[in-house]
Amino acid sequence: VSARRVAHQAFRQDAVGRVEVWPLLVAEGDAEKKPKALKEAIAWRLPLGYRAAPDPAAQLAAQIAQQIKAWVTGGHTVYDREQKGVRPMTYGDVMVLVQKRGTLVPHLVAALKKAGVAVSGVDRMRLTSQLAVMDLMALLQFLLLPQDDLTLATVLRGPLMGVSEEALMALATGRGSQSLGERLGEAATEGALFEIKAKSPSPCGRGEIFETKEIENFGDGSFSAGHEETPPQKDCVLSTLPQGEGDKGSGKENFIKHSARVHAYLRALLAKADGLSPLALLMMILSDPCPADAVSGRRAMATRLGAQAEDPMDELLSAAEEFGLRHAPSLQAFLHWLTESEAEIKREMEAAGGRVRVITVHGSKGLEAPVVILPDAATLPSRTKLPKILWDEAGGRPLPFYVPREPLNGRLASLRGQARERQLEEYRRLLYVAMTRAADRLYIGGFVKSEPKAPSKKKEAVDSWYALISGALAPHHQADVMAGEAATLLSPMIVLADYATQGAPAIMGVEEPYEKGAPLSLPSWLFVPPPPEPLPPRPLVPSRPSEAEDASALPSAPPQEARFARGRLIHRLLQNLPDVVVEKRKEAAQRMLAAPTHRLTPAAQQDIAHEVLRLIDDPRFAPLFGQESRAEVPVIGLAEGRLIAGQVDRLALVEGEVWIVDYKTNRPPPDDPALIPAAYRAQMEAYRTVLRAVYPERLIRCFLLWTYSPKMMEITQSVDITR
Questions:
Q1: pLDDT tens, position by position, 610-653
Q2: Backbone CA torsion sign across 449, 455, 459, 462
């Protein structure tokens, strides 16, 4: 322990750090008081227009998006650890951490994409809950059952069709017993939408509401004929009709023309749906023109739903591709699989990839970024998340109590207060995780729908991240560094930053460094070079395939594979067949050897099966395949300073002795143990040395089992295994 006061000095003195607290954003218009209840009725205007309610989350998201873009385009820099210096900031240097995937996340992603900022999207996404996916699934459901009027109405109001609410009402009302599909067909071919005479519905099937006839000049080419060869109707030819909102003529004529486009588009999809996989069908829908857009369905979706629809559409295509790899290409099965699976897309956010990352604080553990933004720091954990059943352990015996939201009983109120405090403790621990993700800059923001007025609300507000950080940093606010950077869109309320010049006053009361020239006592080891780092030993793998392997039994195999294929098959059979009951061993061996991947002739199959079964059934080798034996045992350890890593073919405990058995398939095998190759002896000695450390009290014996003879030879002579 030093007698001097320890002063903290920044490790990266060349890097500039910064912490900013942005002003709390309050929803506009909240200051207006709500009108009091009137005692007498008065005349009031019917609100026919639409007025967007103030949304502070959307406002803050737009400001953050513009701020990030200004940082990158304005030439701001960040510290690069690899280059040991500053470099221009990129979008990948920014990470936005949110407490939960609430309303702020979609606003933020949409605002970033609208501002032209590259963003990787959210870290998790429930696929079937995305609007773009729901619209596409509705279209696929219509293709399965065109008679479903509700699904058709959903499709017509979707981004791909562009049918207005008024036009849909005109189609749907006053049609009697007609289906919506029949009414759409009449509107497209007969005209006079408001004078359509009700017709009795025909007992039609799928092909009679939207006949799959020839449709010329649709999309990139013509669709082939359907069930009948009927000349296409002129009103259904897409190329002869003006597209978009700029159609000339009366509103009725424009609607009739648009109905023709919609009807032709749906007919074309029905004609193709049965012959395409879900992936191909979705790709055609998104890449080909549609009634709402003359370029592509994808552009129509993005125009209507915003740029945030791009990610869900891509993920839906990925899901369709995954489905096609695992299941038969059935549209109905795909929709069922997608709905029942409740697919949640989880993205890996370790690599920024030049894009802004929007992640929850829980998901950011282990990550780091030069710039971190906490946009929802004013949000407190909801009391509704507290458990309803709480345990009281005060009396020595835990008792469960049901605790309502506002308990009247004092003891229950105390239990709920303790649970709330534990919730806030976890909330503060999460703040530590969030703040430590920032390497250089940390920005704290927040939004509230209204200023807290009730005393209880004001008391709770001091527990928020925003209040904790603001209260701790406000006394150290550096007003003189407010202009340390170029003008920012979000003017900070509190700033703490490193001074750019040398000799600037220390911040937050940090003591000056040790005085220069003062005598220092340096340890002797400081001037002694460190010893070289020991290199990890290269493992010695004793087991090597025999080069004496005979490949004559496999004439059809490639030479490099045939050399050891027979030995591998014998080893595999000797590993698995002893565990099979005696009556079924022959059948199991024949079934394995007959697999087409082995490319064995019938004679070779019979020869190998006979060789293995004869060896297993031989009474001389019964101890090797008994209950006290194991196959393919991995062995690793040190032997005379070398790391040994191998695998013993058979390890058996025989009358208190440990037997190491290695199979050899050489043909013919040597008759004299003296003729055993030196490599085999070194291999077995390595195994013996390692296992001697495992079984110091037992005798270790090594054997080679020649499968062709069959016979077993013991290796007793020690050799140098380090050769």
A1: 888 988 888 888 888 888 889 888 888 877 667 788 889 999 99
A2: positive
The encoded tokens of residue 593 equal 């050897």
**Residue at 119: amino acid letter:** V
Taking the C-alpha atoms of residue 492 and residue 15, their distance in angstroms, rounded to an integer, is 21
State how far the Cα of 242 lies from the Cα of 219, in Å rounded to an integer.
14
| Cα angle for residues 376, 381, 387 (degrees, 5° grid) | 160
Q: Can you give the pTM of this predicted structure?
A: 0.51
To which residue do tokens 């191998």 refer? 646
- Alpha-carbon distance of 643 to 722, in angstroms, equals 10
Of 631, 575, 632, 564, nearest to 598 (Cα)? 564
Half-sphere exposure of 688 (CA within 13 A, CB side): 23
Q: Where are the alpha helices (DSSP H) in 35-189?
A: 56-73, 104-114, 131-144, 149-156, 165-172, 180-189
Whether the predicted pLDDT of 569 surpasses 80: yes
Predicted confidence band at 240 (pLDDT cuts at 50, 70, 90)?
very low
Return the DSSP state at 540: B
Question: How crowded is residue 452: how many other Cβ atoms within 10 Å of its Cβ?
Answer: 13
Q: Is the dihedral of CA 27, 33, 39, 41 positive or negative?
A: negative
Contacts of 478 (CB under 8 A, 6+ apart): 495, 496, 497, 507
Answer whether residue 256 shows pLDDT above 80: no
Task: Report the percentage of the chain scoring pLDDT > 70.
Answer: 72
- The three-state DSSP-derived secondary structure of 258-289 is HHHHHHHHHHHHHHHHCCCCHHHHHHHHHHCC
What sign results for the dihedral spanned by CA atoms 275, 276, 278, 282?
Answer: negative
Q: How confident is the model at residue 87 (pLDDT cuts 50, 70, 90)?
A: confident
Separation CA 143–CA 225 (nearest Å): 17
* Residue 232, amino acid: P
- Sorted by sequence, the CB contacts under 8 Å of residue 548 that are 6+ apart come out as 666, 677
